[in-house]
Amino acid sequence: xxxxxxxxxxxxxxxxxxxxxxRPIGWISSVSADGLVNLAPYSFFNAVCGHPPMVGFAxxxxxxxxRNIIETGEFVVNVATSALAEAMNLxxxxxxxGEDEFAFAGLERADSRTVRPPRVAAAPAALECKLVxxxxxxxxxxxxxxxxxxxxxxxxxxxxxxxxxxxxxxxxQAGVVARLGYRNYARVTDIFAMIRPDxxxxxx
Length: 204
Description:
The chain is of the alpha+beta class. 16% of the residues lie in helices and 37% in strands.
């Protein structure tokens, strides 16, 4: 089949997010200007730069997370795992403004080192970030969508020592999960390595 998004797909559910998958989950904690803590998962999330390390996520509408980051300039990305999947899902609930997602999902907080928002204590890793830019997303015709793309620079990284094997982060042992389409998720259970052509030529 072939379709153009503006014409509709004719399928029971939109296939778009299943075609761009798996996607890392940006499980983001933030704090508002008046000190209210927020925690929410974002599936339009990824690393956007390695040197210096940066991450970005898209907020469909100006939700509490994006608003908090714009106000305070800080956030934390917590790595979601299969053991924390239910809690991560609970933190996506539309609670009343100011209601604590950490408490609602039964999660403990841990202090961050370089930013104010706390991290999820049980998460195997977390990225402490400071705001670099916020872009309002428009269509190719210049129409406003109401969505924002937020980029943050990583200023601190927490890794649970139990997830380090021979000095490498063991993504399988950590049980990292990713977002698929529809209501589906995936757990990383199998990995393989390949040597890049340039490294082969250098005998690495």
